[in-house]
Amino acid sequence: MRIASHSWNFWSLAPLSLIGVFLWIGSLLYADDTINSHISNDPHSTTGSMTLQEYLKLYQRIKSRKITISPQQGKAGIPTGVVLVYGHIMLPPFVIIGREGKILINGVQVIPSLIRERANEEWLKSIVHNPERTANRRRIGRLYVPAREINFTNIDKLSQRIRHDKVIALFDDAKDIVQNLHWQGEELCFVERKTQLATCWNLGNSVLPQYSVEDAKKFNNAVLARQAEEIETALRHGEFVTFHPNGQFGSRPDCRNQVTEIMEQPDLNREQRIEELKDKVFDGSYDVPLEIIDNYDANQWRVDR
After folding, report:
1. What's the CA gap between 197 and 293, in Å, rounded?
2. Would the pTM count as exceeding 0.70?
3. What does 19-55 look like in DSSP terms, one character per residue?
4. What are phi and psi of 35, to 5 degrees?
5. Rg of the chain (C-alpha set)
6. How far is CA 241 from the centre of its chain?
7. CA atoms of 211 and 22, how far apart (whole Å)
8. DSSP string for residues in 202-263
9. pLDDT tens string for the chain (305 positions)?
10. Residues with Cβ < 8 Å from 247, sequence gap 6 or more?
11. Residue 288 CB coordination number (10 Å)
């Protein structure tokens, strides 16, 4: 499957349109601490050897993937191709619009993911209205600057093991709020005990530059324009374009018959259908199968409609 990867790795889901929001949320979560980290809470769409339960735990912020869409279909537009988004099938003609940090196809927002946006809005509300959680995030955030100073400034002076052990030692007084501290290359990863949310700090690269909201908008407009062009090209070539919840999209062979066959098997339960879709159709990823399971409409998936 050819994937066009232009997503900003911000909890989910969103493309680089959220740089300005990223900076604002950084200040919200970490108060007056100066944090310039790339916080990576959203792995790539392939889930590797992760089990379904592990995946659901990692994305427990998403309470529901059920969503209703209402495409506005006219007579004009791109006459070819098929779109799969949120587990729903959309047919031509297609009109693609990029505006205000979003891409819409026939009036339906496809980037960033509506499901992830909804989950993040609910999560942010819980942060704002939960003083204990906010305090814990501040405690964790205060460790970022000293962790970077130890690791990044000593990359050429100390061995990786010594640097990493010194950083881990910083968390001795925070073991009541974090667990599962481990390194992935030069990224320090951990899980918050209260929320079970995973976070990774990239401590091996130079500090990320600060972006103004205006700079973010300009950059995002360029990204959106390129994405819209790629989507249009794929659809004009008659391709089956799949949108992933992390903001990625790509073309694959038309899988409607495969999906229908799996969904219509009477002897499979919900989890078995998810595993079948993951292994046989969606390249080892749980992202799209979970959205199909929650939003499956047999009529939409008919090839002859």
Report:
1. 24
2. no
3. HHHHHHHHHHHHTTS-----B-----S--TT--HHHH
4. -115, 120
5. 21
6. 18
7. 10
8. E-SSPPPPP--HHHHHHHHHHHHHHHHHHHHHHHHTT-EEEE-TTS-EEEE---HHHHHHHH
9. 544 433 333 223 333 333 343 433 443 333 333 222 222 333 334 455 789 998 888 787 788 899 999 999 888 999 999 999 999 999 999 999 988 789 999 999 999 999 988 888 877 776 666 778 788 888 999 999 899 999 988 888 999 999 999 999 999 989 999 988 999 888 899 988 877 777 889 888 755 556 677 777 787 788 888 999 999 999 999 999 999 988 889 999 999 999 999 999 999 999 999 999 999 999 999 999 999 999 999 999 999 87
10. 6, 7, 8, 12, 13, 14, 15, 111, 112, 113
11. 25
Largest pairwise CA distance in the chain = 65
Q: What gap in Å lies between CA 52 and CA 136, rounded to an integer?
A: 29
User: Both ends of the chain: CA-CA distance in Å?
Assistant: 25
Residue 87: strand pairing partners = none
The label of the residue with tokens 């499956």 reads 296
**Would you kindly state where each structural domain of the chain is located, as residue ranges?**
1-73+96-251
Rounded distance between C-alpha atoms, residue 252 and residue 241, angstroms: 7
Tokens of 267: 């002897």
Q: What is the DSSP string of 60-100?
A: TT-------------SSSB-S-EEEETTEEE-SSB-EEEET
